[in-house]
Write a structure and sequence with these properties.
Chain lengths: ~300, ~300, ~300
């Protein structure tokens, strides 16, 4: 599978596997090990986590598989996130939902992720949400500490606006290597708010969450979802693709910013379909059919 | 007439003549030659085209006049645009309306414009619309090829947002010399979205399309059009101007970004009125009367 | 009281006293002198004016106190603004409300402020509103003249967007040291439009006008005001603060951009409460309770 070089050291697989729904999949440790092998066989080496996924349980569950199979660690890239504080039985001291991007929280959260994941090293750590109280110096100091101590290899953000990205970058000697944003055939905000322009300009390939619009693509009943589904089905038929998710991902892959879709399906068939999307090249006509079906303007 | 220096080599007349409606004017080649002479007499030396104007027929029609009068070529500046692909009898291979800012399309379109216009050189080539799929490296490569091969002298964009402009500029060794935007007494978006701030900051004088609001100024029946028309009429009376279009253009000319209005009227009287607008200097009171009549805020 | 260093020479008190309602306070010159002493005793050394406050009468009224007490001048910082032209009996030659940011107007307005205020020196001069016609070179020339002539020490803007700030800064050799913006627990625009990001990135501490939402905080009956008031009251109770305005100001003070609230109350008790807000440190939970009560999103 194609890889995207975010730094000299950090290469992600173009399709990233997302574990945020793991706790609803009812996979035991063996099944997780098997899934890791299956992803590897497809060339999907990058795995997306966050401290809060599965109500703070997801990383630990995944980490048991890594403990059983330490040989896998060097073959994969681990991504995690921090900065959101949830009310949870796992965190009884949390009074309410907050963001927290202080030095202390970032460092503690990253170290906790390392423990849960049974690893000594995160390949990539992201600030999960822009915190209206974020102190860019504090974030920079935390990132630089985690880098120097060898605990995290590279850093980025998620859901950041252009000015929020620039603010944090301005205080940081390391590059913010990515902005993980919501973008899909059904969600075009990043085409209009400057995010994709910034990503292309700075050559920081963005990661795409909800790359298949969280299932709305397959079953959404609103007008936009139905129109886009129809356009995807037409294109799938025209080019002989097996399923519409391949087309929806190929639509993201065609963008010059080098979007890396995160696929978070339990189904191996879906993961294979995602992997196959790299072999699909949409024509401009096909791409714009989908753009327009989603309500994208073309004045 | 005042000229605006976009580069050392490229000076445009402050008022630019727009040919986008040529095919509806029913002008024969002789009439086009005469119009060129009339414009020259007024100091209007810059002529705005696009590949798609008149359903791809406009440039060729204009080019016949240039073929008859090769002596005129050195006295005028030719501007064209590319990047939109229309469904048209002239382009039977086009499957649907698209944008196309690939290297191949830009170069082929510019070369086609040269043939139609019967010239060996475009003074200025613009990307007509921001293409959500635009690859800035590709655009830069096309522009640099056209520059090196002597086919185009300078480059710009049209309808680009601030971040889209910055993206393309970031990959280009040549300056983007202008952004041709919609701006008029009835269309203020560029005052609020950063476009005019960027134009002034980078000293890239913008061109104004629909500078007279596409006729809405004269006959629009909505509240905004009626209020603005009334304010324009009052000012025309106050300063003894012959017509409201002079005031509407003088309103644009007063802006410090050095806006270059494109006037696309068939009527010689209108063109003369436009030319005369350069002799009208609005006071701040007059300018703000019109701003406020159009709904512009003044907190 | 904490001071904020805007330049090496210019330090403002973290709480700034605002005089815009002076003419409605019915204070005589002695009372103004007393107010200056009271502010000094609290460490509030910075005083915010504008040419237009009190229908052009405010600065002169304040200036009488300074004339009586020239010893106070060196102990305080005087801030004024220019660029708005009001219809007023004090300015019979003004035809209508306008903005005017020409060289001539800026210089004349600043010189007039000096006369009214009975001082030879303004510590800080701001452009009051972004003028759609502003010529950044003109503004820069006026600022540099006022600096060179020793009449004004530092310069800034008010209510400027990010791109307007960047435009003016791009032509100015001096730093724009602040953007005086509307921000409060009830007014979050600057959290979303990039203004606070820019302020933090450039390390230009913003001043906050309507820092207590112009009284809506205390008596507003709309849903947002009621919810926020309730959250402020809860927090005041929790931490034993005397009043909700302390909490509302502490909420601004917690932001890492170093917001300087302007307090424009006639009541000495309110001014003391404002001063006390510097001793209140909100927890993140408390800050986000207020953010969310005001409708701030937390996805």
């Amino acid at each position: 599978m194609q890889q995207v070089a975010l730094t000299e050291q950090l290469h992600l697989s173009r399709i990233v596997y997302g574990w945020w729904r793991l706790m609803s999949w009812d996979m035991d440790t063996k099944a997780i090990e098997q899934r890791l092998e299956e992803c590897l066989a497809l060339g999907i080496t990058s795995h997306d986590h966050a401290d809060i996924y599965g109500d703070y349980l997801c990383e630990a569950s995944f980490g048991k598989a890594l403990k059983n199979r330490p040989d896998l660690r060097q073959k994969i890239q681990l991504i995690s996130k921090c900065g959101i504080q949830l009310v949870s039985p796992q965190r009884p001291h949390h009074g309410r939902k907050n963001y927290d991007t202080t030095y202390a929280h970032i460092v503690a959260s990253a170290e906790q992720s390392l423990k849960y994941l049974n690893t000594e090293f995160l390949d990539l750590l992201l600030i999960h949400r822009p915190d209206p109280l974020m102190d860019a110096d504090d974030i920079a100091r935390a990132f630089e500490h985690l880098k120097t101590s060898g605990k995290v290899g590279a850093f980025g953000v998620s859901n950041f606006s252009v000015s929020e990205f620039n603010l944090v970058q301005s205080r940081l000697s390391l590059p913010l290597v990515t902005n993980q944003i919501e973008v899909s055939v059904l969600h075009h905000a990043s085409f209009h708010d400057g995010s994709l322009d910034q990503a292309q300009q700075l050559k920081r390939a963005p990661m795409a969450w909800s790359a298949l619009a969280g299932g709305r693509l397959f079953s959404g009943n609103d007008a936009q979802a139905r129109q886009v589904r129809q356009a995807l089905e037409q294109t799938a038929t025209d080019i002989g693709a097996a399923s519409i998710d391949q087309i929806a991902l190929a639509w993201l892959l065609k963008h010059p910013a080098h979007i890396m879709p995160i696929v978070g399906s339990q189904s191996l068939a879906r993961i294979k379909a995602a992997s196959d999307s790299l072999n699909v090249t949409l024509s401009r006509d096909q791409w714009y059919n989908i753009w327009e079906a989603a309500g994208g303007e073309l004045p």
